[in-house]
Amino acid sequence: MPPAIRVEGLEKDYGDVQALDGLDLTVPEGSFFGLLGPNGAGKTTFINVLVGLVRKTGGEAAVFGNDVEDDYQGARDAIGLAPQEFNVDRFFPIKEVLVHKAGYHGVPESEAKERAAEALKRVGIYDKRDVRFDWLSGGMKRRFMLARALVTDPDLLILDEPTAGVDVELRHDLWEVITDLNDEGTTILLTTHYIEEAERLCDEVAIIDSGRKVTVATPDELTEKGSDTLTVYCESALDADAVPDLDDERIESVSVDGDAIRVRASSASEVAPAVLRQLEAEGYTPIDIDIERTSLEEVFVDLTRRGDGSEDDANDGGNGAGSDGASGESETDDGDETDGRVVAEASR
Amino acid sequence: MSSVFSTGTKTLTKREILRFLRRPWNTFLPPFITNVLYFSVFGVILGARIREIDGVPYIQFILPGLVVLGAIGNAFENASFSIFHGRWNEYIHEPLTSPLSYRSMVFSYVASSALRGIIIGVLIALIGAFFTPVHSLAHPVYAVVFLLVIATLFAGLGVIGGLVAEDFDHLTVLNQFILRPLVFFGGVFYSLDALSGAALTASYLNPMVYMVNGVRYGVLGVSDIPVNEALGVLVALTVVVLALDVAMFKRGYGLTD
């Protein structure tokens, strides 16, 4: 069985602007795959190439083995898309919009009506079925976008910022729905600005920047790329200049702050026993410890700030220069969201 | 995967037809009022002072032309508006991201728009029959075929208009400043016998002349042009326009980045 998505050397330019710059990516069937990247990284352009709203200028792209141009009908039939922007037929009540969408995918009308009712119930807006899209609240609109993506019973569900700007309760409701779908076998491709969302939901995460893949890994693997902080609290305040000399190659740095000794290490939980033993041997009296793991957000910021954003750079450490992140696409700037950790804000 | 007889094609065609049928005040009232005024003013009031043309009363003479005017205007406007409005609000992405073939999509937009044009044409004919009884059609097959072909042709042109337009103003320009003058100088209100020299030559270059006269031949049995040749040219033109529609959809003109 071919992977849900396979792209090789995918390119899209808008004149001088290179939105996708040789992107290589494989999304396994049945996975819950996250796509992270700063604004303008090329996420939406990538998705739009898959569904036929953007014409690629180079490379290959296939959905379940169907080339997005040569076998476009097979590729599009497999995809259910909930885009970032609202692009819903305003002429008809939402129930009929769903019946039409299912019909376009070849679902006979009687079955399409059943599916529409089912999809609206699943996202919790069945009682609004006779209302037009414009009359729905913001949260209901976001729910409807998911219902429309579901009504065709897709093998690949693509969610482009599905929880952008929605409240916590709705976000958790949507997470539950898409997790259930993934458990039922649907492949999910999720783009998000919320690191928490990716950490919580995704099996694998691809970080892209400037139209190129930076890295692909599980959220745990990514967080392991960063450093943890082990804080050892002592009985009394310590001399800030008397930094303990800890002998362990896994330790990156040690600092003192009041009654706390902070140790940066690749894996704090593994290094903690040795650190405590050494401190006690040197006369310190530890009374408590705290381990703060590196967040995916920190790793993300680190990776997308590096040089030209290529995978090699990510593995080799990069040159530390800022990323220009240029792209022809337009994406919602969620940098001022207050709920959740927002990558856009962190990566500025 | 999706032929013109597929569920997908039928769904999009039905959606397009329901869009205009559910807005009768917008679809049917304007042509109703406009044509009641045309028949009242040009047919009854002015027509009483104009002698017969080609052996038929003036009010009957203008009837086929008004049918054509209404049919092509509505066919063009329906296709161009529906596509442009879908592009403007991006909900045209719903069919575009579906497994409909480009040919199916064009079929749906053209068939529904041509149907609207034909419905309006019949409505205008009924209004005309109220003002001036036409007891029978001289050549009913010609009347039906010409109406069908020109409604399809202008629905196809409307698809192009909807894809090319960048603003609502462009649709107005296409309709008011290109289509309408061609129709008015297409022999709706006069016979080509009334013209001579450059005006006559220019009229023969106006495709509307052939459409108006084709329908007029079907309804009244009179025409300024050879109808079979005109029908052949119009059918060929329609095929070319539809092929261009499909090519534009395939290319993503106005639809994809």
UniProtKB/TrEMBL annotation, chain A:
Transmembrane segments: none annotated. InterPro entries: AAA+_ATPase (IPR003593), ABC_transporter-like_ATP-bd (IPR003439), ABC_transporter-like_CS (IPR017871), ABC_transporter_ATP-binding (IPR050763), P-loop_NTPase (IPR027417). It comes from the Archaea. SMART domains: AAA. GO terms for molecular function: ATP binding; ATP hydrolysis activity. PROSITE patterns: ABC_TRANSPORTER_1, ABC_TRANSPORTER_2. Belongs to the ABC transporter superfamily. This is ABC transporter, ATP-binding protein. It comes from Halarchaeum acidiphilum MH1-52-1.
From TrEMBL, chain B:
Pfam families: ABC2_membrane. GO terms for cellular component: ATP-binding cassette (ABC) transporter complex. It is a multi-pass membrane protein. Keywords: Membrane, Transmembrane, Transmembrane helix. The keyword Membrane applies. It is found in: Membrane. Residues 22-252 form the ABC transmembrane type-2 domain. InterPro entries: ABC-2_transport_permease, ABC2_TM, ABC2_TM_bact-type, ABC_2_transport. The chain crosses the membrane at residues 28-50, 56-76, 106-131, 143-165, 177-205, 225-244. The keyword Membrane applies. GO terms for molecular function: ABC-type transporter activity. This is ABC transporter, permease protein. It comes from Halarchaeum acidiphilum MH1-52-1.
